[in-house]
Design brief:
Blueprint lengths: L2 E7 H10 L1 E2 L1 E3 L2 E2 H4 L2 E2 L1 E2 L3 H8 L7 E7 H6 L3 E6 L2 E5 L2 E2 L5 E10 L2 E3 L17
Antiparallel strand pairs: 1-6, 1-7, 2-10, 3-4, 5-9, 7-11, 8-9, 11-12
């Protein structure tokens, strides 16, 4: 089992749960527009948040995904750039592919990343910016 993560805006994820499939590539970009959903290896979450989400004020969620379960659901997962997998197709919001849904909080403007050490292969990134 290989675990990866996707940073989602909470409202986008909750809306998708009602439909059973999540189709947002990244903030403001749909799966149809990009052709894939952006993901990151667990120890790369801090960098993605700092580089792409530092200005966002919406509530964020870290969705931890099992690549084997995504593949079993008929999705292709590729990694053209090391550490940044692409998920080719909508993510099923229920079932084995979604390992965890973890809120990403902010304290004094800095992201507090959930402890990922409990996940196989997960590193425990610093909670400080």
């Amino acid at each position: 089992m290989t675990l990866i993560a996707h940073v989602a805006i909470v409202d986008d994820w909750e809306s998708a749960r009602n439909l059973g499939e999540y189709e947002v590539s990244t903030r403001g970009v749909s799966l149809d527009e990009a052709g894939f959903i952006h993901a990151v290896v667990l120890d790369g979450v801090r960098g993605v948040l700092d580089e792409f989400y530092s200005d966002i004020r919406f509530a964020l969620l870290l969705v931890v995904l099992d690549t084997d379960a995504l593949t079993a659901a008929g999705l292709e997962v590729t990694e053209e750039t090391p550490g940044f997998p692409h998920i080719h197709g909508p993510i099923p919001t229920d079932g084995a592919a979604v390992v965890a849904e973890l809120p990403i909080e902010r304290v004094d403007g800095d992201f507090v990343i959930p402890d990922l050490s409990r996940f196989s292969g997960g590193a425990a990134p610093s909670t400080n910016a």
